[in-house]
Design goal:
The structure is a single chain. This protein is an alpha/beta fold. It folds into 2 domains: 1-81 and 253-289, Rossmann fold (3-Layer(aba) Sandwich), CATH 3.40.50; 82-252, 3-Layer(aba) Sandwich (Rossmann fold), CATH 3.40.50. The chain has 10 helices and 10 strands. A 3-stranded parallel β-sheet has the order 1-2-3. Strands 4-5-8 form a 3-stranded antiparallel β-sheet. α7 (203-213) packs across α8. It starts with 7 loop residues before the first strand and ends with a helix. Residues 12-14, 46, 207, 221, 225 line the site of glutamic acid. Glutamic acid (GLU) binds at residues 12-14, 46, 207, 221, 225.
């Protein structure tokens, strides 16, 4: 049983490929911080992308983590079991005028922004949304939705910042376990997509809702998500959720300096297993003697 007052962490992989060394490092960081805090570790399967996620990869996650000696609190959490929570949350934010439907395709957005070489971009490099659908009349919106046109839901950033109404930040521990205050900068994301067109959620809303439902006190994840935390803090403020503490850890890189990822064909934990590497040896290689 989950005891809610305990420091609670989660390791949250997506089952769209085999876990690689970068995941092993992140899982071991979660284990380390959980032990240090005397807390518990949950395993959350982030499978909102139903097309790309597969049961066999999920089974491989359990197998690889168990081999590595990582233990987690049962039951395993799955994002696919929370689509209705995400939908309710999106509906609430939309009713409050904080989200608006956006019918633009990528090509349409590119047409607007490509004319300006200095068009501002979000921390992931995506051009900020030019706001085309923000000023659409209520009638046109209703007509398009009634005609079955699919829309993404974008945050009205100006409105959201005004409603949140305060300086947002978070307590960051990094890897050195020294707390420091970080000022959140959600405006860097502009009118970001919070509800995708293809599925009724997004990484951002799913992670914020899950961290709340699962009473996560400490989020331990890679540095690549550091900037997304600004947006998560804004959503938490709008939804009246408490902020967890954050520990963004370094990313493992390959020889060329690229972050390890499924797309760069990072070495899978199971290939190392097959090569005869022991869990102790792998822990040692990653700095967890
Ligand atoms: N599912 C994300 C990943 O595999 C982790 C998200 C998070 O920890 O917030 O990178």
């Amino acid at each position: 049983m989950t005891t809610s007052h305990l420091p609670t962490l989660r390791f949250a992989p997506s089952p769209n490929g085999y876990l690689h060394l970068g995941h092993a490092y992140s899982a071991l960081q979660n284990e380390r911080v959980a032990r240090k805090l005397g807390g518990q570790l949950l395993l959350r399967i982030e499978n909102i992308d139903l097309d790309r996620c597969r049961r066999e990869y999920e089974a491989a996650i359990f197998e690889d983590l168990s081999w590595l000696g990582i233990t987690w609190q049962e039951p395993v959490r799955r994002q696919s079991e929370h689509f209705s929570d995400y939908a309710c949350t999106l509906e609430g934010l939309t009713e409050r005028g904080l989200l608006y439907p956006c019918f633009c395709s990528r090509t349409e957005i590119a047409r607007v922004v490509n004319g300006s070489p200095d068009w501002p971009r979000d921390p992931d490099g995506t051009p900020l949304y030019p706001g085309t659908c923000k000023h659409m009349s209520a009638d046109e919106r209703a007509q398009r939705l009634a005609a079955g046109q699919h829309a993404a839901l974008r945050i009205n950033m100006d409105e959201a910042l005004a409603v949140a109404g305060m300086r947002l930040g978070w307590c960051e521990f990094g890897e050195e376990d020294q707390p420091r205050d970080i000022t959140a900068e959600p405006a860097l994301w502009g009118d970001a997509v919070i509800g995708r067109r293809d599925i009724p959620t997004s990484y951002h809303i799913a992670v914020v809702v899950d961290d709340h439902i699962q009473k996560i006190t400490d989020v331990v994840r890679g540095q690549d998500l550091f900037n997304a935390t600004s947006l998560h803090r804004l959503l938490q403020a709008l939804l009246g959720f408490d902020a967890p503490r954050y520990h963004h850890h370094k990313l493992l890189r390959d020889k060329g300096g690229e972050k390890l990822s499924k797309s760069t064909r990072a070495k899978a934990i199971r290939s190392l297993r097959l090569e005869g590497v022991s869990p102790i040896e792998l822990r040692r290689r990653l700095g967890f003697a």
